[in-house]
Amino acid sequence: MAQAFSEPEVLAIKLLFLAALMLSAAVVAVARWRMSPENALDQPVEQPIPFSHKHHVGDDGIDCRYCHTSVEKSSFAGLPSTQICLTCHAQLYRDAPMLAPLHESARTNTPIRWNRVYDLPDFVYFDHSIHVNKGVACVECHGRIDQMPLTRRVASLDMQWCLECHRSAQQHIGPKSEVFSMSGKRRLSPQERAGLARSYRLQDTRRLTDCSTCHR
Question: Which end of the chain has fewer CB atoms at under 10 Å, N or C?
Answer without folding.
Answer: N
